[in-house]
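Go through this chain for my students:
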Amino acid sequence: MKTLKQLLEERKAKRDAAQALVDKAKTENRSMTAEENTQCDKLLDEAEALNAEIETRQAHDRREQRLAGIGGGPILINPPRGPEVPEDRSNPVDNPDPSKYSLLRAFRCMADKKPVDGYEGEISQEIAKRDGKSPKGFFMPFALRARALDGVERRAFDTTAGAGAIPTIIGPTLIEALRNRVVMSRLGMQMLTGLVGGFDLPKLTGVSTAYWVAEGNAPTGSAQAIGQVSFAAKTMGAYTDLTRRLMNQTSLDAEMIVRNDILKVVGIEIDRAALNGSGLSNQPKGILQNSSVTTVTVDGAATDGDVVAWTDIVRMESTVAAANADVNAMAYLTSPVGRGKLKVTPKLGSTFPTFCWEEDGSMNGYRAEVSNQVPSNLTKGAGTTLTALLFGDFSQAVMGFWTGIDLMVDPYTLSSSGGLRVVALVDCDFNVRYTQSFAKILTMVR
């Protein structure tokens, strides 16, 4: 029987041999031949086949180490229960180890019609157990983050001393797509996870009343009133296509590309729905679309758009404060073109030296953020490129989740090229605890 060390060395040798085939084609600035592709796939399949044996051997070794630490005496099948001692390890669902988690490995399992096992399967099963819902494919935790390349060796090459012997070095990171900035969670939006069925968040809608009474008279009776903020699961889906060559990669960089793309696509759409979801076609209703959120009347309102002035910005703060909803963590949010307009809008008069959007990135003494998630194509009359401005306490915004990210593999759509289509599904819903915590201007001239 091979030792664990021998198994690890054998797996590493097969992986290194597959990587050498890929590197050779890169160095020669060509595609891999059919024979090289076949050889590379065979090596990767053999390396992956060793994983199960290695994991079994590691589990066996851990049990032996535990037995050695326990000491003499029989092992009881059903030992008497004493006080429970918390396990000294992080929950893999809430704090997954990005260095152990491989989406590409899980995708290959599903493409081969095998159950997702190993570390990825363990986390998926734990999420399913926690949420009481089985995935269509497998669950990926929201807490997963791409591992940084800190500590990875970088070499500086001298192209003069080694001319003719230096291959082209491809950067370790992909040139990222230009995406909308996610802002709702950074501004304080709350996340509820592990929801089951319909969910109602209770809130106090009425309070007791105090009275002044004459001697001998009783005060009028009063009681609190309890309302509900309701959540109902809505399904959001996205997909990404993986090429055959990318699927064959086992490098950390390829893993990061796939992981980041799925997480960012899902995260950006969740952020957009919370801010500007239409409430139609199974979308949540976002803050800007919620008619219960106060729309501030602008002094400079016109038929084709609203010319926002300093007094209107102050009125937004006053609107929230008048509802007793002002707290220290409030903020303004607008689009980049909205910020540009506010940067050149003087506070009090055309000759006043300060502008609505301060140089330190604040506005009216509050934090101010910007994102293209805020629409800048709104209409009023003949105005068609208007934008929005939002102010409030973003901790009153709540996004609820029923599951993790359910990932399914479609091996048929791209089968002719050997690629895979990965479909991500998320069950979630958005609502606001108190709509009085926000004030908005929807048709600001930019």
About this structure: The chain has two domains: 4-65+95-139, 140-146+175-212+221-446. The mean pLDDT is 79. Residues 140-146+175-212+221-446 form a domain with the Major capsid protein gp5 fold fold (CATH 3.30.2400.10).
